[in-house]
Amino acid sequence: MSNEAIAISCDVTDEASMANLEDIEVGGNKIMRSFDILLSESVKRHGHLCAGQIIGVRMAMLGCHLVGIDDPKSDQHRKKLIVYVEIDRCATDAIESVTGCRLGKRTLKFKDFGINAATFVNIEMGAAVRVISTERSRDL
């Protein structure tokens, strides 16, 4: 394994990136819980359904998948993921809910850049991806 980091940036509105995330399987086992289940958990935690919850769940699903972490709350992956969020809005609650990353666990970092974006870092693999949400995200 190389110590060289891999970093890419993508938009949550990129349909090719989001296509079939719920259908990803390894050895016949589904590895990412469905969007509907993750959204339901996020709404319970956040307190209401809003566009930020939908966008945040999508961002977290895509970010985790792209850095090779398919079950971020599992014991196997729990300490491999760090997420940097760039806005203190509803999407951040959704990202926290999906990933299990928390400020108190030092796995969720807040950088107030006022941009609806998050960087997902797999510290074991040295891979990172910055997922942004544009205005177009609300139309999906």
Which series of helices and strands comes N to C? EHEEHHEHEEE
Give the N-terminus to C-terminus distance in angstroms: 38 Å
Radius of gyration: 14 Å
* SS elements, strand count: 7
Average pLDDT reading: 80
The helix tally amounts to 4
Structural class: alpha/beta
Write down the overall geometry: globular
Determine the strand fraction and express it as a percent band. 15-25%
Query: How many strands, what sense, and barrel or not for the largest sheet?
Result: 5 strands, mixed
**Spans of at least 5 consecutive residues with low confidence:** 1-8, 16-20, 23-30
Strand order of the largest sheet: 1-7-6-4-5
Helix percent band: 25-40%
Top keywords for this entry?
140 residues; alpha/beta; 5-stranded mixed β-sheet; two-stranded antiparallel ribbon; 4 helices; 7 strands; 30% helix; 21% strand; globular; disordered N terminus
Describe the structure.
The protein has helices spanning 15-18, 35-46, 51-66, 90-99, and strands at 6-11, 25-26, 29-30, 81-85, 108-110, 117-122, 127-132. The protein is of the alpha/beta class. The strands form two sheets. It has a five-stranded mixed sheet, covered by helices on one side. Helix 2 (35-46) packs across helix 3 (51-66), helix 2 (35-46) crosses helix 4 (90-99) and helix 3 (51-66) packs across helix 4. The longest helix has 16 residues, at 51-66. The chain is globular and about 35 Å long.
